[in-house]
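Example record used in the benchmark description.
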Amino acid sequence: MLIGVDGNEANVQSKVGISEFAYRLLLEFYKRKSESLKFEIFLKKKPNHDLPQENSFWNYKVVGPSPFWTQFGLPLSLFLHRKKPDVFFTPTHYAPRFSPIPTVVSVMDISFIHFPEMFATRDLHQLRNWTSYSVKKASRVITISQSSKDDIIKQYSLPKERVEVVYLGIKEEKHFNSTNMIEFFDKHQVKKPFILFVGTLQPRKNIVGLIHAFSKVKELHKDLQLVIIGKKGWLYEDIFDAPEKFDVKKDVVFLDFVKDDELPSFYKNAECFVLPSLYEGFGLPILEAMKYGCPVIASNISSLPEAGGDAALYVNPDSIDDIAEKIEKVVGDGKLQESMRKKGLLQVKKFSWKKAADEVLSVLEEVGRTP
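Model output (structure tokens):
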């Protein structure tokens, strides 16, 4: 069987979200290549050095032009291809238009339907129209949680048999050995104890709500800090204004860039990790935190309880008092933190990229063999 893959999301320098999903799947697919299972990876530009090397079972095909690639360049290439793949897989919402072969697409979530005001007009138009076209034409849709599956079925009136849930894996644990932790945190202007948030700065992460809740916790825990690690997304101005608004400006630390090998030290030293999001397709950040033994507090909505299981404490993201109450419950309670750490480490073992890749390949092979 020959499987075609849109590899563009994996062929970037900074890999987060869909890019990380695409990249990890390609690495796992490469381990399974054989005489009976071959892969052709379609790209807009030549492959970066961190992608697997070509061989007789793994080939890259660079197709142009780049503008509107899935609308013109890719489908034309598939039509003219001397040996067409048996199935084509795209890790994104966007399937090739007019594909001559069965296609499988991935949809992480449909947050653009639930929170359209949080997206730029141009991006929103593209997401709405191209996603609708792609999921209705696809032989199968892969998503990353039961919550997202339910949303997709309802939004696009798809039969449940056409939507498959594949849980994400998590990165292998990285170790950062600092000879002087005091010096390390001084460099970042962080003092213990602190609570932690890691993620893109955007409205649906409910960071303003977190800062408001933190201001209430500060009334009992005067020496506590809130550390927010993440790059600017969109509509982030209110987030940066919030510490002054809630009178905790001196106690909130924004770090827009932290090296990957430094993040474990934040997770391992935080009192807890808090993700009070209004919507998440899966909730990978809470598993990242659990992997390093960090107690997790998360919203009780969408997919987050699927990811966190019984290892996290859950909050109503619309209730500032509930968020503050749960943070107060965890901060300083060593026995509770230890119990949450142990449960978190067990929860993490349920998720792996190997398992995710096996499940995606099972779908692709089934579709590719269907007459």
